[in-house]
Amino acid sequence: MFSMNYTLADTLDGTLDSVLLSSQIVADPLITVVVVGVTQEGSDFSILFVNQPSTAEQHQCTSVVSAHSGLASFQDGLVDQIKLHRDQSRLENDVTAEYPAASGHQFSCSTSSQDNWSKLSTLDDRQLVSYPFVVTTVDERGSYAVTGSSDLTNIIGTVSSAVFTERTLAQTYITAVLAAPDEASAQAAAQPYLGL
Questions:
Q1: How many other CB atoms sit within 10 Å of the CB of residue 174?
Q2: Where among 54, 69, 84 does a domain terminate?
Q3: Which of 1, 51, 78, 159 is 20 to 30 A (C-alpha) from 111?
Q4: What is the DSSP letter of 120?
């Protein structure tokens, strides 16, 4: 077993994605010695080989390390967290749509609620909905009698507008994360939304 030792400062942007780096070394045609993997401890990391690479292979390995960036993977992870928070926390529990305006009737914007509104719209298109059609509020304590197709379109529009507003808000944070120059900046860009 042979190891080549580096620090995060040796990478392009001071970040490491050990799985990605390992695959980059394996894929490099100039490095033929078998790679065992990449291990990291703090800011230090090692690339482990079955046998000692040749001098040329060691130089190539150092070139791969210096061109390596783990930032994209880190950013992808934060984007996934934002989307999960948006869909499973914010839209599921926190974001509601009031209809009619100033009525106090709050309707869910969850994925299942959006799906139910879509199905109701399809039934309405086929003239299979009898009006007035009573729908319950998000807390199940109130209800609203939808008077007809136009009223149904308006309530669906209100729910959709709330969903699009939340998606637009989340997207601003996703854009900031993807524009961040390093992991600390990416984390700082994501945190305000993840803290909602």
A1: 20
A2: 69
A3: 78
A4: H
Rounded to two decimals, the pTM is 0.77
H or E segment and range at residue 145: strand 143-146
For residue 91, count other CB atoms closer than 10 A to its CB.
22
DSSP 8: G
Residue 135 near residue 117 (C-beta atoms within 8 A): no
In the 8-state DSSP scheme, what is residue 50?
S
Length of the chain: 196
- What are residue 108's DSSP bridge partners? 96
The answer to whether residues 104 and 166 belong to one domain is yes
User: For the segment 141-180, what is each residue's pLDDT rounded down to a tens digit?
Assistant: 999 999 999 999 999 999 999 999 999 999 999 999 999 9
**Do 47 and 61 touch, CB atoms closer than 8 A?**
yes
For residues 124 and 77, state if they share a domain. Answer: yes
Distance CA 117, CA 2 (A): 61
